[in-house]
Structure formats: structure tokens, C-alpha cells
Design brief:
Elements: E1 11-13, E2 17-21, H1 24-32, H2 34-41, E3 44-45, H3 52-67, H4 73-76, E4 78-83, E5 88-95, E6 103-111, H5 120-132, E7 138-146, H6 150-158, E8 162-167, E9 170-176
Parallel strand pairs: 3-5, 6-7
Antiparallel strand pairs: 1-2, 2-4, 4-5, 5-6, 7-9, 8-9
Helix pairs in contact: 1-2, 1-3
């Protein structure tokens, strides 16, 4: 693991990536002082993923984590997508909450444009999905993708998701719990 700072909530290893579940202190620094977070973690973080929309989502996640059980933080946080070859925090992936009883959870993600078209995001989605299915409450994972974002739909297709419905501007995808 790079760096010697505060430990991650959870770590997931895939062939080319490590997914690091960020602590609340990591999330705060990601928005307020990304350079300080880089120093603490021991690797660079791609800035193109820290859009105003993502920064807003981080604030929303932090608010939810204030009242969540610590054991459920990994369901609310962002996970840093760390590329082993380049030692770069290339993107973020996460769920939008915990499975409430047996239910599906929504996944969201983003990656630095310089790291697109290398199947990193598909690998990250597969890794995080495998982690989610270790929890018996998770019956499936879904995602809502804008029709104007075909690359995101391709990621989900390659990860085994299937199209559930299409509405106005969005395509809804689902990955059921493996049998």
C-alpha cells in the first residue's frame, strides 16, 4: 500500500488496480487540500475527476456519514481508484448508500480522461461489485446513465450489467447478485 498516513476503510485488489475506501478525513482533504492528501497517501491524484459536481457529491457523502454507523462507511464513501502501473489515483467509485434490508444499491463512478479507454473503470466496477456482494443485504447493483454518455454504458455492459429500462434521457442498468 502506498503512503503511511491514515489507513483506508477497506482495500480491494484487482489485477491492475487497488480500490481504497476513503476515510471521512480523506474525503475532506480531497475537496479542501488535495495536495495535502496526496502527500499523506504517497501518490498523485488526478484533478480532472474533482469537478464541481463530484465535490458536491463528496459533501453529500460526508453529511450522510455523520449519521451512519461506522461499519457502513464503506457504502457511503468514495473509493480511490489507484492504478498500479502509474501509481496514480485516477478516479473515484462508490455507492450512494447501504442496501436497506435485501435491496439493490446504486453505483457511481468517474475517471480521469487520460485514463479512459483502458478498461480501468470496468475493472473497478467489477472489483467493487464483488465486494458489495459479500454483504447478504445486497441483492443487486444498479446505475442510471445519461444517454449522452455511451462510454459509461459500455463500462456497465462489459461488467455484466443489463439494461432494465430506458427513460427520456437515461438508461437504467442492473447487475443481479450472482447465483
Amino acid at each position: 500500500m502506498p503512503g503511511t498516513g491514515e489507513p483506508f476503510l477497506v482495500e480491494i485488489s484487482t489485477p491492475r488496480l487497488a480500490l481504497y475506501g476513503l476515510q471521512t478525513s480523506h474525503l475532506k482533504r480531497l475537496v479542501e487540500n488535495p495536495e495535502g492528501l496526496e502527500k499523506a497517501l504517497g501518490f498523485a491524484i488526478a484533478r480532472d475527476v474533482l469537478t464541481p459536481r463530484v465535490q458536491h457529491a463528496i459533501h453529500s457523502k460526508l453529511k450522510k456519514m455523520e449519521t451512519a454507523a461506522i461499519a457502513d462507511y464503506a457504502w457511503f464513501t468514495y473509493w480511490m481508484i489507484w492504478v498500479r502501473e502509474t501509481r496514480l489515483g485516477a478516479g473515484l467509485i462508490g455507492f450512494k448508500g447501504i442496501p436497506a434490508g435485501p435491496s439493490d444499491v446504486e453505483i457511481g463512478y468517474g475517471i480521469d480522461p487520460a485514463c479512459q479507454n483502458r478498461n480501468y473503470m470496468t475493472e473497478a466496477v467489477l472489483g467493487l461489485s464483488a465486494w458489495a456482494f459479500t454483504d447478504p443485504r445486497c441483492t443487486g447493483i444498479y446505475a442510471a446513465v445519461l444517454k449522452t454518455n455511451p462510454a459509461s454504458s459500455r463500462v456497465l455492459e462489459k461488467a455484466g450489467f443489463y439494461c432494465v429500462s430506458i427513460r427520456r434521457d437515461e438508461i437504467f442498468w442492473r447487475l443481479p447478485r450472482p447465483a
